[in-house]
Amino acid sequence: MTDALPAALLPGDLATSTLVLLLLAALAAGWIDAVVGGGGLLQLPALLLVPGLSPVEALATNKLSSVFGTTTSAVTYARRVHPDLRTALPMAAVALVSSAAGASVAALLPAAVFKPVIVVALIGIGAFTLLRPALGEETALRYSGRRHHGTAVGIGAAIGFYDGILGPGTGSFLVFAMVSLLGYDFLNASAKAKIVNVATNLGALLVFVPAGAVLWGLGLLMGAANVLGGYLGSRTATARGSRFIRIAFLVVVSALILRVGADVWTENVRPLFD
Question: What domain range is 133 assigned to?
Fold first, then answer.
């Protein structure tokens, strides 16, 4: 780990403008995560602006901040939507273990390997959702019994591992998988996704905390802003329903395509022309 910053980084160690940017990013990320996922699109790049912060420290501190927001939104959804915990909890348990496995190799595998695949997947998800206007308007479960729960657990394992190793768009991937593969409407999918996302954040922290990668002072402060954003976002989503979440989903997926696509261009394509 870098020793340019103390592990208990405090607000006073940062320029005021940087701290304000981080708090605003955490607030907005909490709102986006609560509605449809993808808050890391804002929060993680903002953390990488902190001088001397390594990518692993940024990822770890992002997980600490996010776990507060996702927990808040999960509780709010649980009170207002009452998601089926028989599906959500097994998904969350498997996702926690899978996320810890992903986090354990996060520093070993370069993100550049995954980013082109992520861009292609996001484009496919966005196009599929856009071309099927009725997708996710109401719950019509594809399967029942063991097949339903087996598919749910498989989703939790795959996306949990992805969240531990990289992370951008995890909530959006969870929502889409539960809408397209399991047949939930967007509102119920978002409610379950928050429960699973809490588990993936905790799973990654089980690896990052013992490794000393978390900046506690900054992470807790951003976590407070994330809580407010998560509360406001989950109330907005439950009040506006699946149609609103579908539109927000398409906006966030488009933004993710642009953000990750820009990284792919900078890291893989542009050097070929230099």
Answer: 11-269
Q: What is the mean pLDDT of the chain?
A: 87
Decide if 4 is inside a domain. Answer: no
The answer to whether 76 touches 231, Cβ cutoff 8 Å, is yes
3-state secondary structure 16-55: HHHHHHHHHHHHHHHHHHHHCCCCHHHHHHHHCCCCCCCH
Low-confidence ranges of the chain (pLDDT < 50): 1-7
**Considering its fold, how many domains does the chain have in total?**
1
The whole-model pTM stands at 0.85
pLDDT digits (tens, 9 = 90+) for 18-67: 888 899 999 999 999 999 888 887 888 888 778 788 888 888 899 999 99
CA 246 to chain centre: 17
Q: Is-contact 36 249, C-beta < 8 A?
A: yes
Measured between alpha carbons, how far is 173 from 44 in angstroms, rounded to an integer? 17
Is 52 exposed, middle or buried, given 0-12, 13-18 or 19+ CB atoms closer than 10 A?
exposed
Residue 274 lies in a domain: no
264 neighbors 115 (Cβ within 8 angstroms): yes
Q: Is residue 163 part of a domain?
A: yes
Nearest to residue 72, comparing CAs of 33, 24, 127, 117?
33
Q: Is 3 inside any structural domain?
A: no
Type of residue found at 66: S
Question: Is the Cα dihedral 148, 190, 29, 168 positive or negative?
Answer: positive
**Mapping DSSP to helix (H, G, I), strand (E, B) and coil, where does residue 39 land?**
coil
